[in-house]
Amino acid sequence: MSAKGGLVCPKCGSESVIRIQYGLPSHDALEAVGRGEVILGGCCIGGNSPQYHCKECQNEWGKMRIGGEIYDDIVSFQAEVGGHLRECYFVTADWETKKLSYQVGSSAKGYVTKFERELKAEGWQQLIENLKECSFVFWLDQYEDHTVLDGTQWSVRLKLTDGEIIEKAGDNSFPAYWEKFCTGIAELVGERFE
Fold this sequence. Notes:
Mago nashi protein
């Protein structure tokens, strides 16, 4: 989702994104196609059918997951933030093993595990709600600002029940809800994440 609240393409960053409509199209749907507001995806829909289409680069993404959104399918989470000359933070949460870990370190010296503890249901739900509130699925795959040297690098990696990996990363550039995301992760672990 863009800072304005609209969808953005995770490949090119364009806000020229429309939904893909499946099933037998109605008269209204055909008129919406004519106006360029939707495209037709066919009569059959599967668990891997894309949900969104970029009119600029033709990218299609956002699986139409039957029975729930992507957030329901997350089984593990990793997030890292830091920089070459500053402290780095690394958080992992794995719902399958019920483990939450927090590491601190630097890119030069490596990481030291500060704690590893049981991940309780309320902590996992807090994490998922944070991802939803920050519109994680609408973040671009990559954010970069090449005018800054060193600075801050970050990455977030999700694993879904079907084994799919979703990765987002940045180099001195951040999605609109980045500060809210970091605050949510810091609250989850009870430590710094910035």
